[in-house]
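Weekly modeling sync, notes
Attendees: AB, CL, MP (scribe)

Item 1: holo prediction request
CL wants a bound-state model with iron/sulfur cluster before deciding which constructs to order. AB pointed out that an apo prediction alone won't tell us much about the pocket. Agreed to run with the ligand included and paste results into these notes for async review.

Input as submitted:
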Amino acid sequence: MNVALFVTCLADHYFADAAADTVRLLRHLGCTVSFPEAQTCCGQPAYNAGRQGEALRMARHTIGVFEDADAVVVPSGSCATMVKKFYPRLTGGTATLADRTFELGEFIVHRLGVTELGDGLAGRRIAIHQGCHALRELRLESEPATLLEGCGAEIVPWEAHDECCGFGGLFSVKMTAVSAAMADRKLDTLPEIDWVVSGDGGCVLQLDGRSRAREMGVEFVHLATALWRGAAAPGGAR
Amino acid sequence: MPTGIRDYPARAREIIRKDPLVRESVTGATIAFDEKRRRSYAEIDAEAWRRWAEGVKNHTLTHLDRYLTEAEARLEANGAEVHWAEDAAEAREIVMELAQRHSVRDVVKGKSMLTEEIDLNPALERARIDVLETDLGEFILQLFNEPPSHILGPAIHKSLQQVRNLFTEVLRTDSDADPDTLAQAAREALSDVFIRADMGITGANFLVAETGTVALIENEGNIRLATSLPRVHVAIVGIEKLLPRMTDLAGFLQLTARAATGQPIGCFVSLIQGPALHPEDDGPEEVHVILVDNGRTDVLAHEHAWEALRCLRCGACLNVCPVYRQTGGHAYGYVYSGPIGSVLDPGLLGLHEAMPLPFASSLCGACFDACPVRIPIPELLLEWRREAQEAGLTPWKERAALAGLAGMATRPGLYRAAGKLGSRLAGTGMARSLPMLGAWAEDRALPKPSRRTFRELWRAGIE
Amino acid sequence: MTGRERILARVARATAGREGLPHPGPLDVPPADDPAAAFVKRFTSSGGEVVEPDPGRPAGAWLTAFLEGLDPAVAGVAIGPEVPPERRPRLPEVAAAHAGAGVSAAWGAAADSGSLILPSTGGRAVQLLPPVHVVWVPEGRVFARLEDALAELRKLDEDLPAAVGLHSGPSKSADIGQTVVTGVHGPGRCIAVMG
Ligand code: SF4
């Protein structure tokens, strides 16, 4: 299958390795991956700030960039939501890109029909941070756990797993004290684990930033990297 | 009425930093409420109930003038008196006039957010009328001299110990009294007030047009008492509270309770059609219903925000809200706090007055999933943000930055160069002097940029 | 123009351009098969109590013994005007504010919400002031759904009581440190007598 990667700004600059792992994983699963170089930002920062005009300009740009792609994979639940849910609102429902775009976990489970990647995560205890957009806009709830367990990981229950980390883009800098307190609620309820895995770079920036400020030493791993590691061991599909 | 909304970010910070007990109490209480709500929703076909409730409210709100006049006619036929108040001042005047007419000296109140909204108690007190809040939570706050922090559990920001200390001081209970003993002390302090009072003042959860029924939900029994024993009952009702039919109440009474506290229904519901009829032994001689606008018709006229008028004031959106949980309601500076406050206040008060509440959300969407009448709170927040941007109510630096982002994002070459520069700068000590990153770095370590961008990795070839 | 007219005019203007949406009709949840049993389950899980009178004894005598057997034993009662003579306890009648128990008769009950439906004609003080409230629920008056009960009430039309109370358990509050306490203002015990 031909897939185009929409890397997103944060992954491009802060999670480049996770983005590269996305490419590796998709190739490993038999996809031919392209990377349209004219891609930029999905426009969510403007959209969430109420700058709909600018968001629409960025949406049009992105829609143009991926015009010919059969399937677009996004290693971010939040940016995938922007394309799948908010582009149709902005463009008045004309964005067919929405139907061709998939969040990474969603793509693997539902489009490729794969849930067993390997056993490279055997013995690893993982808590999953469910990003709000993937969870409540795209209704992707079980996918990360299915895939990680499919790699042999043990998913450790976390009472705050589905609570917002407090990132929210502009929110994190406008309401910084509240935002940090929200991250604390997540961090303070973390069970004994090896990694926190999240499919969203933004949430990781927030939680990791707060965890490092408090010198908590929690290890955050992007879903793409975790899955690539999971697929890496012998016996897997790799 | 001047509000403290403008200072939301500063007050939120202060509560979080200086009064950590508030965060602890509010988080604990709201999580407990929310768990009950979830369990209770799971017992019914919650999606079907929510869609039904949304439908009934939408129908009512799009035929509101008809139902208002129908309710009025029915109430009058039942012997109640109906008053109309365009704003808070008028509503207060009507109550004051009624109090004078009946030489009222003692008022007992049931919990009502609308009476907070119209600032009723201070007006009564200025006229030397004794006003007693009889809901236990409101009674506690009246002693603390604080406004409610939550539309349903007004005192959830107070810990048991704080209530203990207060009661020891005021009601002379033991310093280690358990909640039962404290409640008993409150009950004694309030024991004969219902018999003594000349007037009971309540809000209303619903007003049924076809029967003129004022419906009130509660758990303690104080509202039933306040509407049964004093000579005069005054119900202060927002014009959005209408329901068409008596049978509609069945769904709404149960859904409200499930959303609010996870109960199948409130322990007590009062359905009041009018004053006592002969040959009843007791009950009020007069029932007055004050229909209050106070900004509601402005909300109704708004293309999108009118949907917020479906609100049942159940508090479910507050309970599930991770933003609200950090501070409780006082940070918001107005009676309606949390998610619903952030979309309702701009409509009631004017957007300018309600800034920056539409931005006090990470848009996590949990509120919509909890809301029994499916108010699209995240979408309404975005709508208010859009209007705030258009009206120039946001900082110009922020607007410039976002315009810059859009400018670059539609020019890939420029975007690449600027992006690289930006993330490199963000990783250096210079970041703290950049406007937004400076704020970020107050509470968090700066993000670490990747050694090479993905674009660079891609060009070099990914193995 | 009066304030009333101005408000109504604003409402009309606000909704003028908006499509009038239809009422979705009844909620229509599936009714319980055995309403009486469903009521008992719901009412007791909300903290209410249910008793059945001893069929071998006259109702009034049974209730007298029942009230005397409560802890604390009831000495004086307040009795609602709608309680039929044969169902009245033989105990001294006192004002509701001083009674150990209030005895009233329900108009009916609703199974799905677990509610006793109490008309104001049954005496409000009796239903609210004493610490224990004992309610006769007439046979065959348990509606499967609150919706059905309200539809029935609605039919009374002009004869609707001035007020109707739904009591679905004892008075309670969680306002102090989130701990549930009972009997805050209204009755701390609410006992339905079935039959
Ligand atoms: S907005 Fe919805 S959830 Fe929030 S208080 Fe109103 S009805 Fe309840």
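Recorded for review: Residues 2-111 of chain A form one domain.
Action items: CL to compare against the apo run; MP to circulate these notes.
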